[in-house]
Amino acid sequence: MLNQEFKIPAKLKTTSLALLAIGVITLLAGIFLLLMSKDQMDQTRFWASLLTNSIFFLLLCLASVFILSATSLAQAAWIVTFRRIPESIGSVVWVFALIAGIILLTLVWTDNTNIYAWLQDGYNPKNSLNALKNIFLSKPFFTIWTILVLVLWSWFGTKIYQLSIQQDKEKKGDTKIYWKNFNVSAGFIFVFALTLASTIPWLWIMSLDSHWFSTMFSWYTFASSFVSGMSLILIWMVYLKKDNQYLDIVNDEHIHDVGKFMFAFSIFWTYLWFSQFMLIWYANIPEETVYFQIRMNGPYKIFFWVNIVLNFVAPILILMPRPTKRNYFVVTLVAVIILLGHWIDFYQMVMPSTVKENWHLGWYEIGIVCGFIGLVIYLVSNKLTKAPLVPQNNPMMKESIIHIS
Amino acid sequence: MSIKKFAVAVYDDEAVLFPAVKKVRKAGYKIHDVYTPFAVHGLDVALGEKESDLHVAGFIYGITGTSTALGFMGWIYTTDWPQNFGGKPFFPLPAFIPITFELTVLFAAVGMVLTFCYLNQIMPGVKKHIFDKRQTDDKFVMAIEVNEENAAETEAFLKSTGAEETNIQIAESEWWYGRFDKKEEYEIQQQLV
Q1: CA of A283: which chain B residue's CA is closest?
Q2: From CA A198, how far away is CA A188, in angstroms rounded?
Q3: CA distance linking residue B168 with residue B155, whole number of Å
Q4: For residues B10 and B140, is the Cβ–Cβ distance under 8 A?
Q5: Farthest CA pair distance, chain B
Q6: Running DSSP on this structure, what letter comes out for residue B5?
Q7: Residue A65 near residue A156 (C-beta atoms within 8 A)
Q8: Does the ipTM surpass 0.85?
Q9: Which of A373, B111, B149, B179 has its CA 20 to 30 A from that of A165?
Q10: What are the residue boundaries of the structural domains of chain B, listed by start?
Q11: Is residue B95 within 8 angstroms of chain A, CB to CB?
Q12: What pTM does this model have?
């Protein structure tokens, strides 16, 4: 059964469109109730939530492109049976890039959004130790780098998908496209290292506190987005296999491998999070501890601890034994926990620096999340119908089917 | 210590070995062991080996390491010899985490290596009979325990599964401690006499 065409079940389509509708209605309501409001805090709340979600969902989808590139470069076979899922997620990166681009550029080029403190007069870090930081945190650099990066990410996401579709049409045993994909993947890893793994989280998120900096920050953001990206892939795998009887060549071994990634990178995330935290805690220098003061002792205390429980304690204890990584229910439950946990992680990265102590987790925030979830489901399920669910003519196919983890 | 008789088959390729293992098990023979020059993935499943409990042992060692580190450091810095380091609390948990992590890894790693050696009966000086010297180079060797009656029949069956060569050996089935050749030869001669 190597030729399966995915048809979107009516239930999934209704759910995704309903979530999308909730998101759009919330956004419209947000424009009238929050953005038009006289209260400065309401406007900030409007933008902060959009910023959190657009970045989180963009990086979530981008993680699929990363895992595809990394496995292509390592010539790993295990991913090939369900390759279409990360490919489809990666090929919709451009939509989220567009949304994030519009929001980020609006924030930088309109006045009084109160999100990026370095934009305001008097806040510009003229007295910073490093003059380069004034160039880094400036409107032209922000604009150029953001647009360039979003275009590159979208291009690579789409290109890797297209190459895989082309492979389907080639004759059996032809490895020309396979090696082309190898080269494109190498290019993406290079771009990824210079963007998500270094500059982009500094520019988009860390600059919210313009005087605070941590070189760990980008890695920490990367780990967060990567582990949630693997969880998203796993949820799609289980959905397609278990509930709809598609993808029957995906077996426990492949689920187990993705489960291992979720387990390992939860620990990796904790390692980076803790490395950043411990040095700041130990050195106890006021300009560094300011970041954790509001998060750990202030109004965000609850998020600080929930973050550790959901992203470290839950995955490490639940996923440690082998049988749980092979149990579809348990592993999906952990994937949902991880996605929720890392959304909260992004929430507590952005909110304390923008809306300060007036945090909300009300109709507006939840509505916007629903909209983005609906968008992911809608776009990815649509993309999955466009090509056979199982890649054809991939030279690694047989190795992937008989793979034992 | 028990001297037993074995039917030994030497295979040239793992692609021949896998079907052979299946055939032998299907025919009802009990495989003593299969020796390969490298780790063959899936062979443990084909042989019907049950999953090892090594990782459970690893978890227990790890937890032991965690509690040792936290308990010992906690006792020292709160009860035995409290000291003030830069105004930090007497039980500064974040500062203890790296050491706790290291001890967890150390206990788990060392404990698992020793347990692994115990489970596989390997230790400096512990010897086991080698059925065919080429099993460490490029051949795959399967040994089946036989008795006087079915020895010839088993050997013939092994030949039919695609073995390159087969033979019957009388050998020590367990491990022993000491010299490799002398002791075994002596034992086998005693047995034969």
Answers
A1: B86
A2: 14
A3: 7
A4: yes
A5: 81
A6: E
A7: yes
A8: no
A9: A373
A10: 3-51+126-192, 54-120
A11: yes
A12: 0.86
Cα–Cα–Cα angle for A345, A371, A369, rounded to 5 degrees: 20
Give me the CATH code for the B3-51+126-192 domain, please.
Answer: 3.30.70.120
Q: Write out the two tokens for B173.
A: 């089935």
CA A238, CA B132: separation in Å to the nearest integer?
47
Half-sphere exposure of residue A149: CA atoms within 13 angstroms, side-chain side: 29
State the Cα–Cα distance between residues A134 and A126, nearest whole angstrom: 7
How far apart, in whole angstroms, are the C-alpha atoms of residue A238 and residue A240? 6
Q: Which of A273, A276, A320, A398 to mutate to probe the B interface, most B CBs <10 Å?
A: A320
Q: Which residues contact A116 (CB under 8 A, 6 or more apart)?
A: A107, A108, A207, A208, A210
| Structure letter (DSSP) for residue B8 | E
Model pLDDT for residues A141-180, shown as the tens digit of each residue: 999 999 999 999 999 999 999 999 998 888 887 889 999 9
CA B54 to chain CA mean position, Å? 11
> Domain map of chain A by residue range?
10-401
The residue written with tokens 């399966």 in the block is A4
- The residue written with tokens 């776009």 in the block is A379
Which residue in A281, A321, A404 is closest to B94 by CB distance?
A281
pLDDT, chain A, mean: 89
- Angstrom distance (rounded) from CA B38 to CA B33: 14
Closest CA to B85 of A295, A297, A281: A281
The closest of A372, A364, A355, A359 to A29, measured between CA atoms, is A364
